[in-house]
Amino acid sequence: MDYFNYRENGQLGVESCELSQLAAEYGTPLYVYSRATLERHWHAFDQAAGEVPHLICYAVKANSNIAVLNLLARLGSGFDIVSGGELARVLAAGGDASKVVFSGVAKSEAEMRFALEQEILCFNLESEPELARLNQVAGELGKRARISVRVNPDIDAGTHPYISTGLKENKFGVPIERAIALYRQAATLPHIEIVGIDCHIGSQLTELEPFLEAMDRLLALIDRLATEGIHIHHLDVGGGLGVNYSDENPPHPEQYAAALKAKLAGRDLQLIFEPGRAIVANAGVLVTRVEYLKEGEDRHFAIVDAAMNDLIRPSLYGAWMNIIPADRSLARPQRRYDVVGPVCETGDFLGKDRELGVAQGDLLVVRSAGAYGFAMASNYNTRPRAAEVLVDGAQAHLVREREPLSDLWRLERTLP
Ligand SMILES: Cc1ncc(COP(=O)(O)O)c(C=O)c1O
Ligand SMILES: N[C@@H](CCCC[NH3+])C(=O)O
């Protein structure tokens, strides 16, 4: 459920603003987010977890705009980070370090030091050498690092191979058979405190079953550890809950949380969730203008001013994202178009073979672009990254300006 819908005049609106007005004011391509949708999605998770002790650690990588993080921090959210940069962002946005979990396979010494100094909640360890390094760095600082082992439960999440993370062949986590040995090792180290266990099996999951299977495996491991005197305080189930890009029909957070909670059956465990996409995807759109309509030999192209550098999901994963007109009252001949961008790559497209009625100068809107949209944007083809606007009722706030061109080579130097 979101706050983007067509008005009687045919204009696509978000909360009390019209997208075409925002485009006129801020230019295109333009990311537009809805505060009410973000908050609704976060509360949906929080309420679904309900009476069980829990913490929602929003996955910063999905959308790391400072205003978005700040809104979530104000709701009391925790954060799942994967770099020192993301931790710095969370802090700059007013987030609480004591609610931060740190995932990622390649944490550097400097990142560990920074996170230890900030007293984050937990390091989600992904390998044996990472444990050794963390113990060493924490020792140098005279601290104890709270840890969880990210277990790779070898479960097929049934999602795109590039965003599946819980299979044996993936680089993530520690194979479940080796996790016990790693916990035993951790329990002997002076600068390590075992607090949790975690997993994250993939992104854009549309079925409950893989989540439940992973949870069963983790709970069995928790029981095994208990017999050895290793007690786990929190169970971090990762993120991964999918959203509707078209008609996937993933479980609602309420169903998802209810199913997970049922598995807990009176255990004394805090649940940690790391949702990214489920919070932000449908809270954002990308608005783009049609530069040209072009007739190819055997297809029509709608060439728009947004490209793979702005939104890479279609190019990278073949992801299908809904593309609709910003004004559906305009009478235009319907045709099937490939919606393509200005970047010099054949793979630069936002959608293929889409039935659309458009003319040059019209605005198109890519839906569900709030997650892994701007966050994955680049400057390829020396294109400035788009501006971002956060709508709050009738007010639109420019929360990131379009990059000035000169910023794109500001850090570069010619030879003396
Ligand atoms: C460790 C971890 N947690 C959480 C997430 C967030 O995933 P999603 O956006 O699918 O909820 C990811 C990304 O897939 C991740 O790698
Ligand atoms: N970037 C991916 C999701 C990756 C999740 C990160 N582990 C997407 O757009 O679908």
From TrEMBL:
Pyridoxal 5'-phosphate binds at G240, E274, P275, G276, R277, Y372. One of its GO terms (molecular function) is diaminopimelate decarboxylase activity. Residues 36-281 form the Orn/DAP/Arg decarboxylase 2 N-terminal domain. Residues 31-370 form the Orn/DAP/Arg decarboxylase 2 C-terminal domain. The modification N6-(pyridoxal phosphate)lysine is found at K61. Its EC number is 4.1.1.20. Coiled coil: none annotated. Pathway: Amino-acid biosynthesis; L-lysine biosynthesis via DAP pathway; L-lysine from DL-2,6-diaminopimelate: step 1/1. Its cofactor is pyridoxal 5'-phosphate. Substrate binds at R277, R313, Y317, E345, Y372. It catalyses: meso-2,6-diaminopimelate + H(+) = L-lysine + CO2. Keywords: Amino-acid biosynthesis, Decarboxylase, Lyase, Lysine biosynthesis, Pyridoxal phosphate. InterPro entries: Ala_racemase/Decarboxylase_C, DAP_deCOOHase_LysA, De-COase2_C, De-COase2_N, De-COase2_pyr-phos_BS, Orn/DAP/Arg_de-COase, PLP-binding_barrel. It comes from the Bacteria. Specifically catalyzes the decarboxylation of meso-diaminopimelate (meso-DAP) to L-lysine. PANTHER family: DIAMINOPIMELATE DECARBOXYLASE (PTHR43727), GROUP IV DECARBOXYLASE (PTHR43727:SF2). NCBIfam families: lysA. Homodimer. Belongs to the Orn/Lys/Arg decarboxylase class-II family. LysA subfamily. This is Diaminopimelate decarboxylase. It comes from Pseudaeromonas sharmana. The lineage of its organism: Bacteria, Pseudomonadati, Pseudomonadota, Gammaproteobacteria, Aeromonadales. The gene is lysA.
